Amino acid sequence: GLADPAPVVQTFFVDEDIKKKYRLDSVITVVDAKYIVERLHEKKPEGVENEAVEQVAFADRILLNKVDLAKDEDELVGIEKEIKAINPTAPITRTQYGKLNHKELLNLHAFDLQRVLDFDPEFLDEEQEHQHDSTVSSVAVKVKANVNMDMLQIWIQRLITQDGANLYRYKGVLSVKGMDKKFVFQGVGMMFSGGFQGNWDIPEEERESRFVFIGKNLDHEFLKDGFMACRASNVMRFKIGEEVEANVGEWVRGTILKHWDEGNAYRIELKDGNKTNIWAPVDINAYVRAVK
After folding, report:
1. pLDDT value of residue 134
2. Are the C-beta atoms of 61 and 105 separated by less than 8 Å?
3. Would you state the pLDDT for residue 123?
4. pLDDT digits (tens, 9 = 90+) for 28-59
5. Residues 49, 56: Cα–Cα separation, whole Å
6. What CA–CA distances, in Å, run from 161 to 67, 194, 282, 283?
7. Which helix (H) or strand (E) holds 156?
8. pLDDT tier for residue 14 given thresholds of 50, 70 and 90
9. Which residues have CB under 8 Å from 189's CB, separation 6+?
């Protein structure tokens, strides 16, 4: 029925008793080919959400049912375009009388990070704005770039804190500078999960980062600009072997040992008598500066 899926989905992440006994495999949305476009464009009173739009936005897979009632192929293509304008990542399966192989619905593991690695980049068109109405939209970014891990974490935390209530679904696969593994993440609202999964099989300079956010009242430019600001620079202020001062609560002299070590801009050996190694996550004066 027409119910808001958000509370149901989030229950599987926040209720400890449910988490112990059950696993949310995926969100399947069945839409009626005859009426879905009308439902998606239905005007609601101010403050009332369009549940049909929300159910499409939350879906991992969409069943376009009653396709036999469509006038022709052009109408079906138009319906699918309307759906993809809200959720560009969910595969659409055409059905009649709801008939299909059950294997297409079960054990999808849509909320597992490992499955995010299967995130098809062809779903993303960074040149196209996917917007259904004035509130629900999707923002997709696909760019050949490596990100700074520390700046990425700050950006994600700020995003979830400020816009978490407006985020329906999001997922991404990112290339972190100095890391051989892919950073994958997915989330529902303020329920975020992320980690390193799977090795890159191409050189760092050729890696591509991609993500998509689906939600309401999304600030597209904030999302895109915020991500682009996390990109790691290839131009470093200090050379390997150069003497610097590192901030460890106080300024201590040390020597640059390595650039981009485990996602950190610098690995530094302190001149503290113990040759202690520390890391500067970002190439800014707050962490490391020239010797005064």
Report:
1. 52
2. yes
3. 47
4. 999 999 999 999 988 877 777 788 888 998 89
5. 13
6. 41, 16, 22, 25
7. helix 149-163
8. confident
9. 6, 10, 164, 165, 167, 168
CATH domain 6-104 topology: Rossmann fold (3.40.50)
Gap between the Cα atoms of 105 and 139, Å rounded: 26
- 82-96, 238-252, 277-291: lowest mean pLDDT where? 82-96
| % helix, strand, coil for the chain, step of 5 | 30, 30, 40
119 has pLDDT over 90: no
pLDDT of amino acid 144:
92
pLDDT at 220: 85
- Pairing mode, strands 191-199 and 61-65: unpaired
CA distances from 216 to 138, 178, 261 (A): 8, 34, 38
pTM (global) more than 0.70: yes
Map out the domains of the chain as residue ranges. 6-104, 113-228, 243-290
State the DSSP code for 231: B
Distance CA 90, CA 169 (A): 11
Q: Amino acid identity of 108?
A: L
Report the distance separating Cα 256 and Cα 267, nearest Å.
6
Topology classification of domain 113-228: Hypothetical Protein Yjia; Chain: A;domain 2 (3.30.1220)
113-228 shares the fold of 6-104: no
pLDDT value, residue 124: 46
Asked if residue 117 lies in contact with residue 184, where contact means CB atoms within 8 angstroms, the answer is yes
CA distance 116 to 176: 16
Least confident of 4-8, 100-104, 171-175: 4-8
